[in-house]
Amino acid sequence: MFSQRTVIRDGRVSPFGPRCRQTRQRLFSCEQGRSVAHRNDELAAVIAETGWSQPVVAAAVVRVAAEAGVDELLTVKRSHVAMWVAGTRPRGRAADILRETLSRRLGRPVTLAEIGLARSTSDTVTGSEWDTDTLTTLVDLGRNSMDRERRRLLTGAAVYSVGGLVLPRDPWWDEAPERARSRAIDPHRRIGETEVRAVREMTEFFARRDQRHGGVDGRTALYQYIVDDVARYVSGVFSSEKSRRSLYSAAAEAVYVAGWMSFDASQHESARRYFSLALKLAAEADDAPLAGHILRAMAHQAIDLGHTTAALNLATASVERKRYSHATPRERALIGVVRARALAVDGQKGNAIAAIHRAETDLGQAVAGDDEPQRVWFFQEASLAHETARTLWALGDLDGALRQFRASVRHRRSDSFSRTHAVTLGYMGTVQAGQGNIDAACQTWSRALDAMDGVQSGRTREAALTMRTTLSPFRNRGIPSASEVDERARVALRRVI
Prior knowledge:
Blueprint: E1 7-9, E2 12-14, H1 18-27, H2 41-50, H3 54-68, H4 78-86, H5 94-106, H6 134-155, H7 170-181, E3 190-191, H8 193-213, H9 219-234, E4 237-238, H10 241-264, H11 268-284, H12 288-304, H13 308-317, H14 329-345, H15 349-364, H16 381-394, H17 398-411, H18 418-434, H19 438-451, H20 458-471, H21 480-495
Helix pairs in contact: 3-4, 3-5, 6-9, 6-11, 8-9, 8-10, 9-10, 10-11, 10-12, 11-12, 12-13, 12-14, 13-14, 14-15, 14-16, 15-16, 16-17, 17-18, 18-19, 18-20, 19-21, 20-21
């Protein structure tokens, strides 16, 4: 009557026979293939702190696993969570995904040790990454990034840590410059304006290359430069406090660009770590506008990944502690318009519109020849229109978003900003498709695909994926423009990362 794989339990038919159950258990058993003898009371306590039931924990784990592309965890159920609490050790990436899931719920970083799953002594560290020595992090992160790039195709990307976005309290920021001044130094390495200029020149090179070619190709060279040169400069002897602050600011900008390139390459956890390190360096340089600039980037990333509360917290922090008030008009506009988008995705329409108007006023006050930091060279009318369009889009104003996207395309120098130009056109086509105008969308997307030539970027890849997803209902309808764009997007996806 029933197959060999079907059993009857508690009067009900179950499709999972003994062999199938054993297979499922092996997927989530410990690395040695044996269950841990003792109940994991630490994990149970943290789950209790979340207020979640085990089925809710399982569902949340699946969501985080899907975001990180960890397909083997998409079948996690309540029974797996129960096994982990009972003492079975998760294998593969399950422990890291579980840790991140619980961190997001609690709004703070949760360590593997805290949930009884530390794999080594390094996992038992309970201090925040904000308290880790900056120089140590600078070297370790660069080396680890290069190692991860070599392993990436085999292991996949690390999961983005929302818990890691929780910022330190005010005393930490006040004490940061003194921590840097008291850091152990190499007495044989004197650092001055020559080294500061070298770091800034290299940073500008990579920043401009990123705008033109995307963040995928070349970022490992910047990782290596940070390890080989920037870290040496940070550990040197400075002729004055002004020299130290200048070098730390330059180092922060170099690390920030590494983070931005990682973000554009869709290596989101790597980007978050670089942004956090850049923020620490900016704090140690006592450079409030630069800290605001970096917090703006972190908010931008969090918005794109759908973490609304974290994004708004970061955007709010970007305008606090003199970060906005001491910035130049152009940088204030950049910080302000990203804050507008954070407000928009949080549903604060009035505040978002007000923030847009303030950003427009700020940019209008920027004058050519102002003493501006090099990092804001890219932010002009086209960039403001692009971010304004995304803000209006988030507010549901598709007509307004379309007008702003068109303005962005009209003002941008596409030869110098190929990546952003392609992304803008990709968004613009999606808005047109959302309005039901597929012909106009295909025309716009065709231009976007033209702009993608020579660009290696995770964001342009996402644009091509959106094209194919949106056009999928039209594939068999004999619409030439849709078929052409769909095929071109398919080809583009093979060459972009």
